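Weekly modeling sync, notes
Attendees: AB, CL, MP (scribe)

Item 1: holo prediction request
CL wants a bound-state model with flavin-adenine dinucleotide before deciding which constructs to order. AB pointed out that an apo prediction alone won't tell us much about the pocket. Agreed to run with the ligand included and paste results into these notes for async review.

Input as submitted:
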Amino acid sequence: MNQKDIVVIGGGPGGYVAAIHAAHLGAEVAVIEKDRLGGTCLNRGCIPTKALVRSIEVLLEAKRADEFGLEIGSVKANLSQIMSRKRQIVDKLVSGVEQLMKANKISVYHGAGHIVSPRLVRVNTEAIAAKKIIIATGSESALLSITGVDLPGVLTTDDILELKELPESLVVIGGSHVGVEFASIFNALGTKVTIVKRRPLQLEPVDEEIGRRFAQLLPRQGIEVTTGAAVRAIKREGAFLRVVWDTPEGERGVDGQMILMATGRRPYSEGLGLSQLGMNVDGGAIKVNEYLETNIEGVYAIGDVLGQHMLAHVASYEGEVAAENALDHRRRVDYRAVPTCVFAYPEIAGVGITEKEAKDRNIPHKVSKFPFAACGRAVAIGETTGMVKMICDANSGKVLGVHIMGPNAGDLIAEGALAIQLGATAEDIAHTIHAHPTLPEAVHETAMGLLNGAIHFQRV
Ligand SMILES: Cc1cc2nc3c(=O)[nH]c(=O)nc-3n(C[C@H](O)[C@H](O)[C@H](O)COP(=O)(O)OP(=O)(O)OC[C@H]3O[C@@H](n4cnc5c(N)ncnc54)[C@H](O)[C@@H]3O)c2cc1C
């Protein structure tokens, strides 16, 4: 029988990172994957969507070429080539993970893993004896249980990534980060997009002010947002699908050629045999302690299957922590600085607490904001919409939250995450020399605003 120090079930950004980290620490490791290595993130999530987002960025910039003194004639999107570029990027990165498995001498088993006992895993007809097990089986789309959800033209986020033809109109049910990203992508491609939501668009845990400003920008881009709509059904009406909900005035609805169900994801732990093991599971989400160990000794769980943060970088972080703990280190998880990004236009990113949270929790705090319109690099690249906002503790000066809407927000947030992780103060950031002319100067200026005032911006 095959014998391993650690068997990882699921080869997404949680599982494959756990496996590589464990191999670096000297363990013999196997990964079991029932689909393609890379999981949701590489195959159906972060990477394919960001490949599409990049095509859109180029398209939008090309349409503004004259602003930059360039004459390039008319620009047209070609969906099949955009999708083909996306596929090539996904394949390249999946093959990169396969190479990393080989380079780190990690055995990869293709099939569905089943836990027979805390020391034995089965895949297809093979049994693998495992000293420790890490479950990293991810999540699946959570569809609303309403009539019409199975009609042709009603898409999951997996389906929309394989579209062959651009719909004339698209109704996005749910205004999650992912829903907003797809709304931005298809709107830029020329589809008429309507987001239908039960509650106001807030994009939690984005700072409320930034979320509100972002929501105001959507209609100006041509994206309609309908709130207060508890969707009851989807009906076919001729060439269109109609999403309907009830109001005190009667039934309301909105039509689209296609409907995207962006209604979130739920943890996926089917077929693992968890109930026979007596594992503590709630609605598919596996319960773990601060060392990411389940109630079954020697069995760990990480990533989306925990049903908590549901972000690729958190899954990978947890993969490292679980791998160390499975090899008898004692490392606690620390979620103080989890950055969140929304790759829409403009981009949004945040880390730490929001201004409202500081108020609600009666934390004595100070807030500083700096607009990108006052940042030289942002002006030079023609991306002046948005701002950086920083919240710090009024007594200690420690950075408690950083929230950004604007160019490269997802990259800029790393400085905020590092500040919170290190317990840095606004003064630490203000006293750090930032290269000029760069976008991080906007973060620097925001920190200066918490001390004696930003240099290049004066509130009047
Ligand atoms: C459209 C979309 C866009 C996204 N964009 C972002 C983004 O920009 N940034 C971000 O941080 N996150 C994003 N996410 C979320 C991100 O994809 C997930 O948080 C991340 O993939 C979770 O990693 P994981 O390893 O826990 O699970 P997954 O990536 O889901 O991987 C789990 C793997 O386990 C396998 N598996 C399941 N059961 C078994 C079994 N019994 N045996 C063997 N294999 C099994 C599955 O086939 C899968 O490959 C996005 C998600 C979607 C859907």
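Recorded for review: The chain has a mean pLDDT of 96.
Action items: CL to compare against the apo run; MP to circulate these notes.
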